[in-house]
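Consider a protein example.
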Amino acid sequence: MTRHADPDTRRLQIAEALLRTLAERGLGGTTLADVAAAADVSVGLVQRYFRTKDELLIFGIEYVYQRATDRLHRVEIAPPVRDVVVRLMETFLPLDETRERELRVWLNFLTASLTSERMAAIHRAATGELIDGITDALTAAQRTGEPDDDLDPRAEATALVAFVDGLCLHHAATGDGYDIPAIRAALATYAGRLFGRRAGA
């Protein structure tokens, strides 16, 4: 990359290098020097944009969440709502190499959020926005007859997000029984039960 790249381009270059490094080495095993080497730049250049490792890590998790949000916005919103909800949640599943890497990075940051209030706040905000969006989708679904009128949209949205997070965790940690076809099928089964109540499913 040219030595005269603009700051935004440089930051994104470094963010991509951070994601690759974290996915391979984990949070504890990643240094500024590692990220600089992966980005093919000097440590000094990395520090020009991120003075500390913590600043770099916070930018990294915000970058991961922004990429996930961008994927959400590209999902076509068209009935039935059940299919929309499945497509929305699939954007978080590790169904390709990019999302597999993001999952491993996310798991590292999730651990860090236990001891970092700043990272915990970022996670809470992103999760809250996702739950709000799914709540709105389920509320709209009730108005069109999907699913039962007595369903609690927010409680179900919270449960659905936790379910998908669990699929991601087991995919990363265990592998067996949680490969891509299996996690797709599990999400479809969950959605079928959620939206099939009226029909007695």
User: Anything to note?
Assistant: The mean pLDDT is 86. The first helix runs from residue 7 to 25. The chain is about 70% helix and 0% strand.
